[in-house]
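note to self — DONT lose this again. spent like an hour looking for the file last time. sequence + predicted structure for the chain T wanted, 308 res
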Amino acid sequence: MTITSARPKSRSDSTPAAQAAGKRFYTPYSFWFYLPTALLYSVLFLIPTFASFYYSLTRWTLFDSKFIGFDNFVMFFQEPALVKGFTNTLIFAVVTSGSKVVLGLLLAVLLTSRIVGRGYLRSVVFFPVLVSTIGVGITFTVLMNPDRGIINGALAVFGIDGPGWLTDPQWALMSIALVDVWKGVGLATLIYIAGIVSIPREYMEAARVDGAGAWESFRRIVLPLCKPATVTVVILSLIGGLRSFELIWAMTRGGPGFTSDVIASVIYKQYQAGFYGLSTAGNVILFLVVTAIVLPLNWFLNRKEVDL
């Protein structure tokens, strides 16, 4: 016969406190710490967003409003410059975001290598991000002046006749995109630098031991492991490109003609003309366009990242 001995239960084991010792308690106390953030988020984002949706259905001024349904949206889509604005917005967003991804990655690889003055060069690359967008626009408007600008003056020294960067319809939008890339590539570079320095050094050392060169290490280690940084740069740059306004307005105000108009500048022109409800409807449409493009793209890129 096998005798098994069991430890008798003590009274302390059967008490409610002992039975609940291994259970996790949820109290509303910790949720009170979310309240300030929730209030700020509601006041600064949720309430203005819903108010914009409502006022887009009205004809309003500072003192009164009249509900008119979807008339503002119908009028907005009848805007003559709208098609050109949509096209320019998509071109501007794709060109600027793509350029920032490529240049940001290349600069990050350079600025994480062993070069002289690496810290100083990082500061130089990031400095344009800190400068006012309006200030950058005004400065480059002067530099790109076709007659008295420094850029065309420098090209003339080499016998090159510089174009009308901001006055020629074929060059205006791309000239602004070039300035936008110059201003924003520093942030993309910073994000890529953070991604590269987070790669374990053992991977690079193992690649060198296996005889991999710089290109192979970049293609098989740096590029795949920087995918989270790439997703971040693509999404942020694309959102900025789709919502672009300040730089374009400071440099060309959508001109010459409507050749550099984007959705945001079309909306602002309607606001200047006193069509407040119409411009609000345009902002709602812009919000929906950005959401419709960015959310599926973000899901697609993150899905691919997980699959890899």
